[in-house]
Structure formats: structure tokens, C-alpha cells
Amino acid sequence: MRTHANSILPALFIILVLFPIYGRYEMPERFAQPFSGFIDLGTGHKVYATWEGLDIQNKFVILLNGLTHSTKNWQQEADELKKRGVGVIRLDFPWQGHNLDVDGFPTEPITDKETVEVVRQFLSRTGLNSPVNLVGLSYGGGIAIRFAATYPELVNKIFLESPYTEALQAQDDLIKWLVDVTWFMAPTLKYLTNAQFELFIRNSWKSMMWWWNMMGWKIAEHVSQPYLEALVKTFRENRKNMNFDFSTKEGLYNFYFKLIVYATYPLAEPEILEHPYKIEATYWRALGIRDTKMIDFASTLPKDSVHLMIAGNDQYIPRKVLLQGFWDRLPLEVKGSVVVINGSKHSSNEEAPLPTAAWIAYNLHQNEVRMDVVYYVDRNSAVFSDAQNGGATLDLTLDHLDQHLDARFGPLALTQQRDEARPLNTHRVLKCSQIHSYALRFVRSR
Questions:
Q1: Beta partners for 137?
Q2: pLDDT tens by residue, 194-211
Q3: Confidence class of residue 179 from pLDDT cuts 50, 70 and 90?
Q4: What is the pLDDT of residue 54?
Q5: d(CA 70, CA 41)
Q6: pLDDT for 255-313, tens place per residue?
Q7: How many CB atoms lie within 10 A of CB 3?
Q8: Which residues contact 82 (CB under 8 A, 6 or more apart)?
Q9: Which pairs from 413-420 meet CB under 8 Å and 24+ separation?
């Protein structure tokens, strides 16, 4: 018996001494203090970034912006995350936010693949080379998916808030209709004078307004007129650099896509007009991701990594696109959790910062929710319900946070409800003090 006890001493030494030291995420020294400023990626790009609440003990997330957003749009959710002990890193992609002042006027597509590489370069330049947690809204959700699939060894979890997973069907249908009804005149477009081309733009605009109004999306002419004039001015000043190939349907599609961006995006997202380059950058960024279907990358996503948050009143992405079109088609082993935020519009980071932050923090600290059910929460609440399990609730308000954190180190009632296809890994829920207790109890018994 003594021999057997002696044989486990080296293992106990590792558990008791080395595990608490090497089991931590070693944050680079530069993250010890809050920061806001530009990070030189060494590739000709600088990206604006901020971070706060990071230390060696904390979990942390990297927040990835929506299409028309910047780091400032995350403020409410970032504050809620910090209340829950989660550090926050935010960055603007090239031609977003503060970067618009240094990147100049965009003239070509900004692809999702290029943006994924920007995130990779940011991690490399800042020394974040261990698995990270990404939170992406809309466009940023699409980038999180593709990054995790491209570099699975660098990702722990991805939290997707109303993520981009495929092109918007209604918008795509409109553009294809416009292409079909004007295709007969496409070969002549490149020969038009500037005045004739401007007339073509205005007539195309009227056709598009007729389509939107027929579909029930009422857009008053006096409201949209300023955006038409801005578009005409942009074409007039930059026609030589636009390179629309009207000899192909793809070229004509891109032309009408730009009309839609200028016509409708400012109505839905007025902040797109806050910088003279922003609407043009939005067009190139949306064009760069338009042909990407995120489900194509599902097979290489990290295990248990995907946490999907659906805005209950999303005005852009139908729920079936995210549930049936994406979530249901994911491999079982990559699924983490899915939650619907009742009453929230698309930008849940601003519409529902409380439940989004509570769900993220809870899932970072433990892994006890079921991936085979849909959870529901109101936009101003942190009490989640599982309608498929008798209406059981999970209270994640700050008053109950300690209770849940303690619960993960004791008997785990929720763990017993998990799908048998996804057994719980013990190392995910044991903290060092409990390992110490088990080890010392084992030694005393010998």
C-alpha cells in the first residue's frame, strides 16, 4: 500500500503545484492596463483597439463589430460583461470606426477571408496565441465562424449574436429582378455619357423604390432623395474607378447592390452617414462577404464551440435562416447552446446587453446548458427558460451569479439533463481547490 501511495506522489505534485500555475491563461504584459489606440499589424494596416478588465484570473472575450458598427456600439454589453468578471477586447476592422480616418477611400471588395486574417494578425501582434473567445454581431458573427473554422486551434468558444450566415434573401431577390428587367440594355451602359448614366441611375432608383413599396416597405420619396443625390455624386466623381462590368449579370448585380446600400442602409442604420467614407466601405464589405455561406465551414469548427443568440424581433434575418438554415445543419459535436432573446431587434448588443452578457459569462464559466433545446429570455431580463423541459428556469442575474459559480463545483443537477451524446468532461467544472481537496483526501485514506 505504501508503494502504491509513493507512486502517485509525482502525479499529486503536478496536480497540487503545477496545475494552478500552468493551468492559467498567461495574458501578455501589455494587457495589464486598460488601453485604447491603434495597433500596427505590420501589413500596411493599423487597427483601432481597446481593452479593459483583463488580468490573469479573468476570462475574456474579443468583440467583433457588425457591418456598420464600431467599438463604441459594444459599450453597454462590455459594461455588463465586466460586471460578471469577463475582460473585454474590442477592435475596429479596416475601414470601420476609427480606422476610417487612416485607411482612406475604399475602392475594392473587402472579403471575409481578408478580415479573418486581420483578426489573426491582431492576435499575433498582441501575443494572444492561446485559444480565445470571440463574440460577433451580424457581420462580426460571420467573421467569428470563419475564423474559428480556419484557425480552430486558436478558438475556445464563439458567441454569435444574430450572425451573418448567408445573403439576405429579400435583398437578393430584388437585385436579381432589377438585373432581369434591365439586362437587355446592359451592353450599351458603358457607352453612356455622364449625364445619360446619371439618368439611368435615377430611373433605376425609381424602379427600386417601386419594388420596395410594392413589398410593403414604404419609403417616402422625400426621405430617400438625399441618399439618391449622394449616390449620384459618388458615381459622378468616381465613375472611372468603379469598374462595373455591365457585359455580365454579375457586374449589373453589383451596380444594383450599390444602389440598395445607398438607398436603404441609411434608413435602417443612420449612423452609416457619420463618416464620408463609411457608406462606401459598407458596400465593399457587404460585397466581399455576399457569396459566402457560413455553413460550408461547419465541419472544421472546434468542438462544443458554437453558441447562437437569436434576436426575437430581428428585422433583417428571419429566425428560420439561423435555426433551420444554420443551427440544425451544424454537426452535433460543435454545438454549444442556442437562445432566443424575445423583443430584441437585430443589434442585440445594444437592444439586449443584459441577457447577452449574462449568457456569455455563464457559458464561459461552465458548460452545463443543453444544446438540444432552445432557451428563451426577455430582452431586459437575465432569467432564461427552457420551454422544452417543463419551463425550467436559469436565473443569471448578478444576485444569483455566485450561486451558479459555486454550483459548478458541487453536485451538478443540470449536468444530468445533458444529452447523452455529449458527456461532460470533468476537467471543465473542477476548480483547483476541489482538486486539492480530492487529492489530499486520497492521500489521507492511504
A1: 161
A2: 787 778 778 777 776 766
A3: confident
A4: 85
A5: 18
A6: 889 888 887 788 788 899 899 899 999 999 999 999 999 999 999 999 999 999 999 99
A7: 6
A8: 52, 53, 88
A9: 414/368, 414/369, 414/370, 415/368, 417/370, 417/389, 418/368, 418/370, 419/370, 419/371, 419/372
Q: Which helix (H) or strand (E) covers residue 39, if one does?
A: strand 35-40
For each of the domains in the chain, give its residue range(s) and CATH number, in order of start: 9-166+292-436 (3.40.50.1820), 169-289 (no CATH)
State the pLDDT at residue 15.
42
348 by Cβ neighbours in 10 Å (0-12 / 13-18 / 19+) ranks as: buried
Residue with C-alpha cell 454537426? 331
Instruction: Report d(CA 318, CA 168) in Å as an integer.
Output: 9
- Contacts with 119 (C-beta within 8 Å, 6 or more apart), sequence order: 62, 64, 91, 134, 143, 147
Alpha helices in 42-153 (DSSP H): 75-83, 100-103, 112-126, 139-150
- The SS3 call for residue 419 is coil
Residues 375 and 386: beta-carbon distance below 8 Å: yes
Strands (E), 126-191: 132-137, 155-161
Please state the pTM of the whole predicted model. Answer: 0.78
pLDDT tens across 347-403, in order?
Answer: 999 999 999 999 999 999 876 677 778 899 999 999 899 876 656 688 888 766 555
For 367, list phi and psi in degrees, rounded to 5: -135, 65
